[in-house]
Amino acid sequence: MNDKNRVFTPDFLTQLFRDPLDPGYADAARRRAENGPPAGWRATSTRVISAVTIVAVGFLLVVAYRQTLADEPSRSQARAGLVNQIEQRQAETDRLDTEAERLRAEVAALRDAALGDTEAEKLRDLEARTGLARVHGDGVVVRVDDAPSAIDAVTGANGKPDLGRVLDRDLQDIANALWSAGAEAIAINDQRLTATSTIRAAGSAILVDFRPVTRPYEIRAVGPDDMDKKLRDSPTGRLFRALVADQGMSFEVRDAEDLTLPAAAEPRLRYATPSPSVSASPSEGGK
Length: 287
Prior knowledge:
- There is one protein chain.
- By secondary structure, this protein is an alpha+beta fold.
- The protein has helices at 12-18, 23-35, 41-114, 117-130, 168-180, 227-233, 235-247, and strands at 135-145, 150-151, 158-159, 185-188, 191-192, 199-202, 205-208, 211-213, 217-222, 250-261.
- It has a domain at 136-150 and 159-261: Alpha-Beta Plaits, CATH 3.30.70.
- The chain is elongated and about 115 Å long.
- The model has no long low-confidence stretch (mean pLDDT 81).
């Protein structure tokens, strides 16, 4: 085929940029120039249709607005009811915690009266070590918090949501580093840690022994004088300093005197019972 007879058709994008308007606009403009503006019943019908359309759209907007206003009190009432229930449950939990603390102190007083001084002192020391009693002493306070939210100016979404957010494993690393530095007792947001404590995530929340803790997270520890230096020089301390520099996370370690850490909740004890002994019978092959 001769190249001179070949016809090149412009692609879609080229045609779109060359003629951005739909051809129908040019046809309508040409007819208007030839016939003039619509007159008579055509002009009247056009105005009537436009007016009816505007009225219909306005009516729909008014109906939607009134429906939204009608639903708002029920939503607000439901939300207020949920907030009220949460506050009531929290108040009841605090009251029960106070009552449990009072009963625990009463039981401890009766126990100390029944035991001798030596045995009572040993028992109090064991309770302090296992987290079942309050402890007082000097130590450190570690305060860690999320980085400020980076809001994208175009999409409005948070940028890098996980890199600058404190996770459950971060609190685990800090607690383990404090134990390694010689901590004798640790509490996270007044939740005392024991040998059976768990720090885990539930969605976006962090649970310590199945109780939620909120930011900023404050880890208090009672222990030796050089505990803060050991924490700063540990791999965990270096990691958090890097997170502060790179992601804007907050991480502070300071000495504290006369800290008071609360007692942990009473553990749920489980007892094991030995299975009944089964006398071994000779196998068929042993006969």
